[in-house]
Amino acid sequence: MDWNANVMQRVPEFATRTVMLDAFDLTLLDLLQQDDGRTADSLAADVHLSPSAIARRVRRLRTNGWIARTIALLSPRLTSRRLRAIVLVQLSEHTDRAGKQALLDRILSIRQIQFCYEITGNFDLILMFDCADMQEFTKMAEAVLVPEPIVQRYETSFVRCEHKFAPYVPLGEAA
After folding, report:
1. Which residue, 58, 62, 110, 173, shows the most beta carbons closer than 10 Å to its own?
2. Which CATH class is domain 5-63?
3. Number of neighbours of residue 165 by Cβ within 10 angstroms
4. Who contacts 75 (Cβ-Cβ below 8 Å, separation ≥6)?
């Protein structure tokens, strides 16, 4: 891996100054996205830094907000029997900001909605519901979408089989 200054990237920080993430940081972020449980000793085998330098960098990446949180991804052995639904939501043409924000706040508060993206095209939002069964899905969809006057319509597709789930953003050299 080429570790010279040409691979350094400027990444804006939320404050007024700019923080530099170098190739070591980007490689660490790539590796941690794949397995956050790796130790500094294990990471040192792939990143040519000492385990103590790696530990300091990982701490800094967390402190500075580059790693938002660490989660465990469950095996399909535990999740395959759950009902997952992808819901496309179309908002009315005359949606005001306050109404849209109220809907988004409600969506954010529902643990059964795993993600929400604002999208382009005929629909405005895409939601992923994860529920124990159809009864729970119906209850959640009706609680979130039906009472909202800004929701013009929504369409639901149910997940039959998961072939790939890999939430990973390549940052390093191969990106």
Report:
1. 58
2. mainly alpha
3. 8
4. none
First to last CA, the chain: 13
pLDDT (tens digit per residue) in 15-58: 545 568 999 999 999 999 999 999 999 999 999 999 999 999 99
* Residues 142, 147: Cα–Cα separation, whole Å: 7
Note if the pTM is more than 0.70: yes
Q: Do 44 and 58 meet the contact criterion of CB atoms below 8 Å apart?
A: no
Beta strand pairing status for 113-118 and 125-131?
antiparallel
Higher pLDDT, 174 or 107: 107
What fold characterizes domain 76-158?
A: Alpha-Beta Plaits (3.30.70)
pLDDT in tens, 16-27: 455 689 999 999
Domain ranges of the chain: 5-63, 76-158
Place of tokens 């969809």: 141
Nearest CA to 66 among 109, 22, 119, 16?
22
